[in-house]
Design a protein that fits this description.
Blueprint (H helix, E strand, L loop, with lengths): L1 H16 L10 H21 L2 H57 L3 H24 L7 H22 L11 E2 L3 E2 L7 H19 L9 H11 L1 H12 L2 H24 L20 H8 L1
Antiparallel strand pairs: 1-2
Helix pairs in contact: 1-5, 2-3, 2-5, 3-4, 3-5, 3-9, 6-8, 6-9, 8-9
Length: about 300
């Protein structure tokens, strides 16, 4: 899911930022994202009298808009985990057959055997997809990508505003809590952002663990390791840009922690009632077996 989100985020960034620079004060991207962000920051600042609080308010508003999509994604992920548990017996049988074919492929000498093995492998892969569809066990959801896509223009517009502010130029020389610089590089705020997102990542992995497909346990472990890249990337980006970006990430991370608890309360992880891990292959009815019976 995160890989797909990252790809979509990259694509939309390329589309939005083509021919656009931080010094440009004209064009579609500036008029649609940068200028409204610039004016919005100034408007909120005029009301509250603090650039830091203005950033917090805008961040919370954005997160509240995104929250329904995130909660829907939590619901979808729970249904997918439930489907994966129900599909596990059938997927395990198919995985065992695939592993056996891999062993046969090593020993295959004739071209006919190699073709036969490849054909059977393709049939088993289609079988896996059919089983996943049968139990609605696909964890991929566009709702999971949407929050990232919504944030992309906001963050980019925020960055361009800090680099070349017009209406909110006062943020460049401002501080938050009379300590943290918002318009300049901060050394403390990125560390706080890392702590918040590291906790949020650990909390998500604990409360909403992913159910790996049989045979893909190693890949699931790699995906867990990749999740820890987010706090590191956020820390580096916050350090390179400005303290205001770090404040955005800190507030957003704290909101996501609360949101994770809400999602867990509404859609707790599915727990299978069956405790017997042994699978009787003779009692497992595959999708392909049902098709053969119809014929």
């Amino acid at each position: 899911m995160k890989k797909i989100s990252a790809v979509l985020l990259g694509l939309i960034s390329m589309v939005l930022l083509t021919g656009c620079t931080a010094e440009t004060r004209e064009g579609f991207f500036y008029e649609t994202f940068v200028k409204p962000m610039d004016m919005g920051l100034k408007y909120v600042y005029d009301i509250v009298g603090s650039w830091g609080i203005a950033i917090i308010i805008i961040t919370l508003l954005l997160r509240l808009v995104i929250m329904p999509f995130m909660l829907y994604n939590y619901k979808h992920q729970r249904e997918a985990r439930k489907g994966m548990e129900l599909a596990r017996p059938e997927l395990s049988v198919v995985t065992e057959k695939i592993n056996q074919l891999k062993k046969d492929a090593v020993r295959a000498v004739s071209k006919e055997d190699q073709i036969r093995i490849r054909t059977e492998q393709m049939e088993l892969q289609r079988e896996q997809m059919a089983i996943m569809k049968k139990y609605n066990a696909n964890p991929v959801s566009m709702a999971g990508c949407l929050p990232i896509l919504l944030q992309a223009p906001f963050l980019t517009g925020f960055y361009f505003t800090l680099v070349n502010p017009l209406y909110s130029e006062g943020i460049v020389s401002s501080t938050f809590l009379n300590v943290f610089s918002l318009g300049q590089r901060s050394y403390v705020l990125p560390i706080i952002a890392f702590i918040v997102y590291a906790f949020q990542t650990k909390l998500t992995m604990k409360l909403m663990p992913q159910t790996p497909q049989p045979g893909q346990e190693a890949m699931a472990e790699q995906m867990k390791m990749m999740q820890w890249m987010a706090p590191i990337m956020i820390t580096v980006f916050s350090f390179i840009v400005a303290g205001a970006v770090a404040v955005y990430y800190i507030v957003g991370g704290l909101f996501m922690i609360v949101q994770t608890y809400i999602g867990y309360a509404l859609y707790p992880p599915y727990k299978s009632e069956k405790t017997n891990s042994e699978i009787d292959e003779d009692k497992v009815t595959l999708v392909s077996n049902k098709k053969k019976k119809r014929k």
